[in-house]
Structures are given as structure tokens and as C-alpha cells.
Design a protein that fits this description.
Layout lengths: L5 H21 L8 E8 L5 E8 L7 H9 L3 H16 L1 H11 L7 E6 L2 H22 L3
Parallel strand pairs: 2-3
Antiparallel strand pairs: 1-2
Length: about 140
């Protein structure tokens, strides 16, 4: 893999900060829920930016649904992630226009949104470690 230039990294960091604010304040699509931007990768020529997002669970009125969706990723979570990605992809042109007013670059990269499952994988690994520790304590009678 090629090393990212410091300028591209600075632009990526600024895009991440600005997009976090813009998504929260400017995107009025009801499909966009609690979205967190985990990272931005900008191409060498600053023409494309891959925006990595995670979607936090939104609570519904039904507590049984909340229990099911908060415990492990299921079909509802996948649908919510897909809807958020669709809405952000649809709003990417608008977000790019708003970014052009905030960035001090000649051109603004085309935004491509992708789901980042690293937090989900981290939680699964943490649960496995906790389960192994609990089994070890039970086995050794502590």
C-alpha cells in the first residue's frame, strides 16, 4: 500500500470533522439516524473520499424490539445500516456543496459512504473474551 501524503491526511481529517457537523445539523432525511464517522480516506489526487461510518442503534417504542436489536446485530440493524447508507449517498452531492464552502481546497472530493464494521467486530471479540474468562474462572473455581 502506498503511504498517504500529509496533505491528503490533513484534508481527510478536516473532511471528517466537517462532515460530522454537517450530517448532524444539515441533513434532514429521516432515514439518517445516529451516524458516526470513523474515518475518511482521500485519494492521492484528492478527487475521491471514502467515508467510513458506523450506525448507532436507534430506540423504538417497542421494548422487545430494543432488546433484540441491542443485544446482537440482526435484520433490523442491517436494514437500518442500508437505509442510512442510501440516504447519505443521496445527500452526498449536497454535503459536497456544503463542504466546498468550509474547505480551503480548490476542489472537493467526491464522497463515497461505506459501513465500517470494526466496532461491531470489536464488541464480538470483547464478548468472546469475557465468555472465555468467565468459563476459566468457573473451571478453576474462583
Amino acid at each position: 500500500m502506498s503511504e498517504v501524503s500529509s496533505r491528503a491526511q490533513r484534508v481527510a481529517d478536516q473532511i471528517q470533522r466537517e462532515l460530522a457537523n454537517l450530517i448532524q445539523l444539515e441533513v434532514n432525511d429521516p432515514r439518517v439516524g445516529m451516524v458516526s464517522i470513523t474515518g475518511v480516506d482521500v485519494s492521492r489526487d484528492l478527487a475521491h473520499a471514502r467515508v467510513h461510518i458506523t450506525v448507532m442503534n436507534t430506540l423504538s417504542e417497542d421494548s422487545d424490539v430494543n432488546e433484540a436489536t441491542l443485544s446482537s446485530p440482526g435484520e433490523l440493524d442491517k436494514l437500518e445500516i442500508e437505509e442510512n447508507l442510501k440516504a447519505l449517498t443521496k445527500a452526498s452531492g449536497y454535503l459536497r456543496t456544503l463542504l466546498s464552502k468550509r474547505l480551503s481546497t480548490r476542489s472537493v472530493p467526491k464522497l463515497e459512504f461505506h459501513y465500517d464494521s470494526s466496532i461491531e467486530r470489536g464488541q464480538q471479540l470483547s464478548d468472546l473474551i469475557d465468555g472465555a474468562l468467565a468459563a476459566d474462572r468457573k473451571l478453576h473455581g474462583e
